Sequence to fold (390 residues):
Amino acid sequence: MKLEEYIQKNKHDFDDEKMSEKSTVSFENRLLKEFHTPEKGKLYYIKTFSMAASIAILICVGIWSYIEHSRATQEKQKLLVNLEDESVGTRLEGIYHFSDTYLKEDVQIINSLLKILHEDSNNNVKIATIDALMLFPSNEKIRRNLIEALGKEKEPLVQIKLINVLSTLREKRAQKPLKELIKSEETLPIVVNNATLAMNKFK
Amino acid sequence: MDQKELIQACKKNEYTAQMHVYTLYKDMMYNVSWRILRRREDAEDVVQDSFIKGFQKIGKTSDDMNLGAWLRKITINHSLDVLKKRKRINWVEESFILEKEYIEVEFPEENSITVAHIKTCLNELKDKYRIILVLYLIEGYNHREIGELLDLKFSTVRNQYRRGKLQLLELIKNKNSNEIRRIHTEK
Fold:
């Protein structure tokens, strides 16, 4: 008989070692700990629930962001359309909506407002626009345009509004157009008075 | 409870079924691991780890599988991993010796040999021979499967097996003659 045959024939006799009792006890404990601890089960459910909740929150946030983004885009588009509308009422509505609720320093809208500041034919629209632009007093582009507008503006009410605003902003660069207004014979006395007061504040 | 029902119960994480499986196979698995590692503590740890691993993965298996063979395979793999971590075995040392140098040593008469005697001799072999012999002779793996398990070439496994077997037969013969001589002297 060959070695292989002998071992094959007596194979089961090779398994004569026994696991210790101590090891069985320790296995029972390990099994309970790994698979049957209530906390473990609870933890599993908590983990699963947390994961599901996190995913749900992420999806909701994603959907909400998308809706919010779409809504904001729509709102902005509507605002821009209103600011360019032919009707004074609609332009005013646009400006008031911007200063009351929109309140974002959006470049496109600011540019649209600056265009109104320089080109609009209606005083009320211009005055409302100046108030709206004043929401961003540290915006250099707005400050420069307000100074520029003061140099060009011919309407006394708007001139007074610009003088007051630039005075509030303590914008010293406004001194030059103010001096020109004071010197000009076309300027109404009330405007000259306002301009003089503003000049005195800068001193 | 038959084996299929036992597997299904384990899949449902039933403690009684798991302990039943443990009781059924613990000694078989312990012997498998002990033959490879030859340290009680290590082998017992491997058995525990293998059961835990088995219960974790049993959900992915078929209800009709051979549970004992599956657990045996897990135990062998885990025992070999432990052995590899414990020490580096130079499997290919001396394997350049040509097969033709191998001379078959006769296996002694069956009635003068015991399993205990073979086990003792097997345990005296170097790891690189013993592991291959154990896997081939007792666990029933062929040379190709052993090569895959140990990441060795088929030819290396075959060569080491032949060399190991040769040494084992020499040991069996010598130890047996010494034993017989000792018994005769005592008489």
Chain A is about 75% helix and 0% strand. The longest helix of chain A spans residues 38-83. Chain A has a mean pLDDT of 89. The CA atoms of residues 69 and 135 of chain A lie 23 Å apart.
